[in-house]
Amino acid sequence: METHMTLFHGENWESIVVYVLHLLAVFAMSILVEWLSHTRLINSDKNNNVVAGLMQSGLYSIRIALAYLVMLKVMSFDAGVFVAAVGGYSLGFLIFGSLVFDESGTAPYHKPADLPPLNC
């Protein structure tokens, strides 16, 4: 009996459909990490510091967990997963962190976000 500890289902893909679904999941998680990195969900005017701090900690936990899940999947050394992760992070930054969709003229990465930037 052989057991494996893997993030999704391992490297024995049943079909191309399952493989594409895994790639889409990695792509979506990457975009979600970028969205959480550049969003303002916490209204500090309506919340006291304790509630705002707990909400910020919860968002940070979700973001870092998603980032680690993407990293673990990339460590499977599958080129398709690598391309899906980089593509997701790139598209997420294009949508949420660049000047492409910002009409105010101020770069979104100069605006304060709820969470500190991801650091390597």
From TrEMBL:
Keywords: Copper, Copper transport, Ion transport, Membrane, Transmembrane, Transmembrane helix, Transport
InterPro entries, alphabetized: Cop_transporter
Entry coiled-coil feature ranges: none
CC terms in the record's Gene Ontology section: plasma membrane
Molecular function per GO: copper ion transmembrane transporter activity
Transmembrane segments: 16-37, 49-69, 81-101
Membrane topology: Multi-pass membrane protein
Compartmental location: Membrane
Family: Belongs to the copper transporter (Ctr) (TC 1.A.56) family. SLC31A subfamily.
Protein name in UniProt: Copper transport protein
Species: Coffea arabica (Arabian coffee)
Name of the encoding gene: LOC113695799
